[in-house]
Amino acid sequence: MSGPLKGCRVIELAHIMAGPVAGRMLADMGAEVIKVEKAEGDDTRRMVPPSIGGESAAFMMMNRNKRGLVLNLKSEKGKQALLCLLKDADVLIENYRQGTMESLDLGYERLKDINKGLIYCEISGFGRTGPYAGRPGFDLIAQGMSGLMSITGEAPGRPPVKSGAPVTDITAGILGAMGVAAAYAHKLQTGLGQKVDTSLYEAGISQTYWQSAIALATGEAPTAMGSAHPLNAPYQAFQTKDGWINVGAANQANWERLTDLIGNPKLKQDPRFKSNDLRMNNREALVEELNIVFRMRATAEWLDLLDQGGLPAGPILSITEMHRDPQTIARDMIVTTTHPAAGEVKTIGMPVKFSRTPGGVHSPAPLLGQHTRQILAEAGFDAKEIEEMIVAGDAAEYDSSH
After folding, report:
1. Nearest to 126 by CA among 102, 95, 101
2. Mean of per-residue pLDDT scores for the chain
């Protein structure tokens, strides 16, 4: 492993998405991440189809760069094994419902006495304080309650629409990883760990910067605007002769450049469109004028013309088109790992590049219990003890017959 977090040891007691996103981000940056699963495994292992070689594609996407073991945390020996791992760990990540870790006697107050340098990262639906702390949380619920679904969709009065991507799950994981990295920097200075607490709800709120700025300033709630921007125009998708194109003429210089490039310089003198505030107030008329122009040429023609003119614009790609795009390939955002059961598996690459301490994708997601014996041996258990734990159900290893 390499990366800026090389030497940082993370124990991941997390499932589905937000917690595993945090673990994946840290692993990509060089941390050693050990994923602890229950006997039946992370629920993402059952999110099929699709599967590759019998392994869940979703699980493999979320859990590359990690080693994995299975422990029964309801058994005393399974719990003691986890405590052995935590004694010299830097980070624990968990995303259970409130009270679950405490019921297992694995809450922060207990663990910080065992390891004063432990960074205890909790990612939950609504955070560990406040009236909703005990509620279960899912991305769909968080998108609705954070206001995101009120600003997503075509227009006011249409059925509510969530973002196609689970943005609160993913953002919460990124916030968790950011919090852990900051707490780790503090630990390197002081030797002391701390609790890091974030949630899907707060992740959703964090996505509303522009809309919250408007609402806090005016007292009025912004609504859905399709692909348009709440503060700048023109900045949205326009229909072309054969498809759609995104155009970002979000400042005055780009607006004036756009009118010249589309062959209609008179628009910049139109009193309705002379400044951004006027364009926003007359956005429907502006869009109508531009739609007439953009429908006259094909998408590829417009992209070539606007690119040559230095105006921000781009096509609306499908996921598979994005995977094949030369910029995606050039930035190593699609990489291949070799999985012991699934064979060659493609995954999304590391989105942050470091010039001195490059991270990256170095291993596939673990099979269920693949590294149980190895990790327990590293923790000080001898072969006989490990075998006894597996026979007793305190731990489990990969069963190739399944």
Report:
1. 95
2. 97
Q: Measure Cα distances from 220 to 131, 142, 224 in Å.
A: 25, 21, 13
* Residue 12 tokens, joined: 């991941």
What superfamily does domain 235-317 belong to in CATH? formyl-coa transferase, domain 3 (3.30.1540.10)
Q: Which of 38, 10, 27, 25 is nearest to 119 (CA)?
A: 10
Domain limits, the chain:
9-207+327-396, 235-317
- Decide: pTM greater than 0.85: yes
List, for residues 287-311, the tens digit of each pLDDT value: 999 999 999 999 999 999 999 999 9
Is the torsion defined by CA of 168, 174, 175, 177 positive or negative? positive
Q: How far apart are CA 324 and CA 333, in angstroms?
A: 10
CA distances from 22 to 184, 249, 322 (A): 14, 35, 24
Spatial distance between the Cα atoms of 133 and 127, rounded to a whole number of angstroms? 6
Annotated catalytic residues are: 169
